[in-house]
Design goal:
The structure holds 2 protein chains of 2 kinds.
Chain A: H1 2-18, E1 23-30, H2 38-49, E2 58-62, E3 66-70, E4 76-79, E5 93-97, E6 101-108
Parallel strand pairs in A: 1-2
Antiparallel strand pairs in A: 1-6, 3-4, 3-5
Helix pairs in contact in A: 1-2
Chain B: E1 42-49, H1 52-67, E2 71-77, H2 83-94, E3 100-106, H3 111-117, E4 123-127, H4 136-146, E5 153-157, E6 174-180, H5 187-190, H6 192-196, E7 200-204, H7 216-226, E8 231-234, H8 243-257
Parallel strand pairs in B: 2-5, 2-6, 3-4, 3-5, 6-7, 7-8
Helix pairs in contact in B: 1-4
The chains are: A alpha+beta, B alpha/beta.
């Protein structure tokens, strides 16, 4: 449900910064651990772009995987969800990547 | 075949003239058949956090609050966990010691604000309409109306929802998740973002433990698997059980985060 307001923020930020230029495509980065469902963003995007300078724009979403580091054994490992458990058994784990939610670039005419 | 428009040319004949684009020589000349020009696009690098606007408004709230020595506690839970009951008791029992104020967030109605208002505590209600969470801008508007006194403890009762509020920084000093034993096991694993983002967990309705299938130790383990070392305080808001450590925690947060207020 929060994807709607998140996607609205994306559209607003682009409209504001591109000053009304026609946008052909948008590249978003939604980390696997960000708590944002990429499919929902894709769904909301088309609806929210209607009537703006982004109407008809293509949305490309890249989903960087999660990575974490164990504070006890120092190992680095991949994570798919926020249940962060090091293979050594420790839960004292720091998320290194995968939480990002960024507008990477836009393609304008 | 014409590489631009895909029209066929069995003979493979090309008639090319310099400066004329792609030649045809298979029945249509440049005047008869115009390809729409490919729009020239350029890529603009953004590298902008989507939540940047909310985060900067949250930071503004944080500065506004700390400048007044106000400690803001963001209370998050699912609907029906007992947030408002806990809040009613907390403001009654803590209100003599420190000034308190409340921001209530719900999709609709003034029901919760009226309950808090009945305790004599200053309160504003934010109705989010279709929204499923409070954001920093809503809190800023609430603070403008509420105008809490310097040095107070401000409780923000977020919209009942274990998903969305976790993502939106309001500018609070601390986050508290309230969870009741009637909600069943496994919630920290099912809603890891909420439990990972909190500073404290209050486990409410412990008076009902004999009647429900709920293992406090297992819950604590689950909570710590997404938030290592997080404190879990078992409480009963209706009877007042276990609230002393909750008040002690609030005093500690207040001592830690409230800046001295210059008169």
């Amino acid at each position: 449900m929060h994807e709607l307001s998140i996607t609205q923020s994306v559209v607003d930020a682009i409209v504001e910064r591109m000053d009304g230029a026609t946008v052909k495509s948008v590249r978003l980065e939604i980390g696997k651990l960000s708590g944002i469902v990429a499919d929902s963003v894709q769904f909301c995007f088309e609806v929210l772009c209607a009537g703006t300078s982004l109407e008809g724009a293509r949305l490309e979403i890249v989903e960087p995987p999660g990575r974490a580091a164990c504070r006890d054994c120092r190992a680095e490992f991949g994570v798919d969800d926020l249940i962060l458990l090091c293979p050594c058994g420790s839960a004292n784990v720091e998320v290194l990547a995968g939480r990002q939610l960024r507008i990477k670039s836009v393609e304008v005419v | 075949m014409c590489a631009t428009c895909g029209c066929s040319d069995d003979a493979g004949v090309r008639v090319l003239e310099p400066g004329q684009g792609h030649g045809h020589g298979h029945g249509h000349g440049p005047g008869e058949h115009v390809h729409p020009p490919e729009p020239v696009t350029r890529t603009v690098l953004f590298e902008q956090d989507v939540l940047a606007k909310n985060d900067s408004l949250a930071e503004r709230n944080r500065i506004w609050l700390s400048g007044r020595g106000i400690v803001a506690v963001n209370l998050m839970s699912s609907p029906g966990s007992g947030k408002t009951t806990l809040l009613e008791r907390t403001v009654r029992e803590l209100g003599d010691e420190v000034p308190v104020a409340v921001v209530e967030g719900d999709q609709e109605t003034l029901l919760d604000a009226e309950r808090v208002h009945a305790t004599g505590t200053p309160v504003v209600q934010i109705n989010t309409g279709a929204g499923c969470h409070l954001d920093a801008e809503m809190l800023a508007r609430g603070l403008e109306v509420l105008d809490p006194v310097d040095g107070s403890v401000l409780f923000i009762e977020n919209v009942g929802n274990l998903v969305c509020p976790a993502l939106f920084d309001l500018g609070e000093s601390a986050r508290v998740v309230i969870m009741s034993v009637t909600e069943g096991p496994g919630k920290p694993l099912k809603y890891p973002h909420m439990f990972a983002a909190t500073d404290l967990v209050l486990l409410n309705k412990i008076d009902l433990l004999p009647y429900v299938d709920f293992d406090v130790d297992e819950f604590t383990r689950d909570a710590r698997s997404v938030n290592p070392g997080v404190r879990v305080l078992p409480v009963c808001a209706t009877r007042g059980d276990g609230l002393a450590p909750w008040y002690a925690w609030l005093r500690e947060v207040r001592g830690r985060t409230s800046a001295p207020v210059t008169p």
